[in-house]
Amino acid sequence: MNTLSARYPQLLLNLPFVTLTELPTPLDRAEELGEQLGLDVLWIKRDDLSAPIYGGNKVRKLEYVFADAMAQGCDAVVTFGAVGSNHVLATSIYARQLGLGCYGVLTKQPMTPYIANTLRYHLSLGTHIVPTHYHGSLEAAERIVAAHPTGPERVYSLTWGGSSWRGTVGFVNAAFELADQLKHAEAPDRIYVACGTMGTAVGLAIGLRLAQLPTEVVAVQVVPYPAVIETGMKELFAETISHLHAIDNEIPLLDDPMQNLTLRTEFLGDGYAERTPECIEAVDLINATEGLHLETTYTGKGLAALVADARSGKLKGKQVAFWNTYNSRPYPKAVATVDTSGLPAELQRYLEPGGG
Fold it and tell me: Mean of the pLDDT values across residues 194-204?
């Protein structure tokens, strides 16, 4: 379902798009969690169910990014992320579905419970894994592209998190989807969402304004400065709305990117994938009340901000939504028995209990 293109038909004609998701994702009332937090209304947007194979927020972005890659005649993609990156895994899963090869440039991170199986999943997919350090990522990608067997022009580069302007459009569309679901309900005053590469939060902020919903996006920082910064949000906002306006001039050139977008930095803790007590508590709380499983790298920190604001009284009398960006689809059973001997030596430690 592409409600954005239904509103602006020129996008359907002139902005490449490939369907990977099953939309709309559910918009559920979290009554028990809302009651515990003293909230009149708490919604959960279930993007963990965005696609049948592998859900989460990345798939919405990939629908636009992969379409552009295919339109350019590419036969492979290269992208970036930490070792346990959901984005890199989602990219590989859907690249294979579309008949594209995938290179994953992976950088180290603190150990989390899911890294080992994520790496095994990559091996089962045939992802070309290239370990490097963060500051060497672009150079590693350049070497990959130069050596690609069918020529460098056939490798499409996806930015971190898929948060190019094209990827961001996936969440402009998501805001229109939410507007359709709220036709018989009042729009939330705030949406809380984990913010890594900014595309999800910026896309929602643009889409909510275009859909004329008076909702603030609370973007909760989950990666260190300068990967998430207000300047970067403003630049991505301006680039995305500029491209959309160029494709369909009925889309207004919105100004003041932070009008309905707030960056919250105080829930990051010691860094990327470093667990905080508030995050752990939030993950346990939503599991106990709503039966939802979050993780402590992204979504747990996003929910921790909502919980803290509710308990401090900042959300009294407000309607609130939490956008669940995590994948809840199970990994294939075969992942557990995949041959791991082909994993680069630098990453073997992540397969060990307590490794990393």
Answer: 98
Q: In whole angstroms, what is the distance from residue 156 CA to residue 158 CA?
A: 7
Q: Is residue 206 classed as helix, strand or coil in its secondary structure?
A: helix
- The tens digit of pLDDT for each residue in 215-262 reads 999 999 999 988 899 999 999 999 999 999 999 999 999 999 999 999
Scan for tokens 């990345």, then name that residue. Answer: 58
Task: Identify the CATH assignment for 3-57+163-324 out of 3.40.50.1100, 3.40.50.1360, 3.40.50.150, 3.40.630.30.
Answer: 3.40.50.1100
State the Cα–Cα distance between residues 161 and 92, nearest whole angstrom: 13
- Scan for tokens 């302007």, then name that residue: 165
User: Is the pLDDT score of 2 beyond 80?
Assistant: no
Contact 141, 78 (CB under 8 A): yes
Supply the pTM of this predicted model.
0.97
Is the preceding peptide bond at 224 cis, omega within 30 degrees of 0? no
Spatial CA neighbour of 102 closest among 88, 113, 115:
88
Report CA-CA distances (Å) from 111 to 37, 187, 356.
Answer: 31, 38, 5
